[in-house]
């Protein structure tokens, strides 16, 4: 067997206008351009794209044009591109199908599931077999065995054999907790030296069956929780005795994401906005996407709707975007305070309740008004507890006068 090398990439999501921004769509295209630049420089025998080349099964013309331009560069460099479809770039119906089919017809890619035997052969080097993405575990369990039966894989023990797929393998070392594992390991055939995977955006390598299971990860940040993940692809070199060395090549073009995760429990919305704005200002960077994640529990009288997001967004001067993620919870009076109030003697109850209400209402009112409202609130405790509706109504009317 002759030594050779190949590039393994996945999850490019071309055409994704994240946050509705054209600049983000361009970012995903720039990452693809850098991938192609680096691939041409490495001079591999071929490239594998393991699904989700596009964000949508019918990409916009500008996205399709960019893809065609870059695939044409690879074709000019005599680097074949082998693909399988992912959950994004394949429509869930037979009529629409996938945009990868016309690209295959144009000779820009070799879409493995479309060809006889779902395979591609490089004599004296390798055999590559690829399966479609079936979107859900139920459909995968039903359709993948049928596809494999109809397109029987024929790995050659004299060559290096590659299995290409897009989906989360149901293995603890692979599947993120929030992601459905579509592919039971027992459905994947034996006899392959390298399992080239897509869909899981975190790059990883592990032993699997008779070979190596590799997820190349994504090439740009698709969600803020991926900010810390390395973005890139694998360059795999295989020697004459079928020993594979997979080197991760990190891309330099992906935009910088800064996640600012803070717990604001107990603070009023005005204080949260003030604090978050300062954190955004401190983290401001040229062209970055800033993601303040606002966590915690609001005081009982506060509402998320009172939070001034414009104050937070306006705090950055150099960033491309400030995109707050609101994970604040609204709550009633805390269990500790409620227990303290209702387990006290009446005199202690009124004192503690007045102090508590005064602190609450002083946040948004003058001292005089806060004391008036706090006094009425205390006077409501006993009639409310005794279900004296007339007394409750009278007390509230006195407040409104």
Description:
- The protein is an alpha/beta fold and 401 residues long.
- It has three domains: 4-250, Metallo-dependent phosphatases (Purple Acid Phosphatase, chain A, domain 2, 4-Layer Sandwich); 257-329, no CATH class; 335-400, no CATH class.
- 33% of the residues lie in helices and 21% in strands.
- It contains ten helices and 16 strands.
- It has helices at residues 22-42, 61-76, 100-105, 137-150, 269-283, 309-313, 335-342, 346-362, 367-385, 389-400, and strands spanning 4-9, 46-50, 81-84, 110-111, 119-122, 126-130, 160-166, 194-198, 204-208, 211-215, 232-238, 244-250, 257-263, 289-297, 321-322, 325-329.
- The strands form three sheets. A six-stranded mixed β-sheet has the order 4-3-2-1-11-12. A six-stranded mixed β-sheet has the order 5-6-7-8-10-9, with no helix packed on it.
- A hairpin with a 5-residue loop joins β11 (232-238) and β12.
- α1 runs parallel beside α2 (61-76), α8 (346-362) packs across α9 (367-385) and α9 (367-385) runs antiparallel to α10.
- It is elongated, with a radius of gyration of 29 Å.
- It starts with a strand and ends with a helix.
Rg over alpha carbons: 29 Å
Spans of at least 5 consecutive residues with low confidence: none
Assembly state of the chains shown? single chain
According to DSSP, the number of beta strands is 16
Could you tell me the CATH topology label of the largest domain. Purple Acid Phosphatase, chain A, domain 2
Q: Please report the first level of CATH classification, the CATH class of the largest domain.
A: Alpha Beta
Strand order of the largest sheet: 4-3-2-1-11-12
Question: How many discrete structural domains?
Answer: 3
CATH architecture of the largest domain: 4-Layer Sandwich
- Largest sheet at a glance? 6 strands, mixed
Shape: elongated
Percentage of residues in DSSP E strands = 15-25%
Question: From N to C, what is the helix and strand string?
Answer: EHEHEHEEEHEEEEEEEHEHEEHHHH
How many DSSP helices?
Answer: 10
Distance between the termini: 94 Å
Can you tell me the CATH superfamily of the largest domain?
Answer: Metallo-dependent phosphatases
Helix content: 25-40%
Whole-number average pLDDT?
A: 90
Structural class, please? alpha/beta
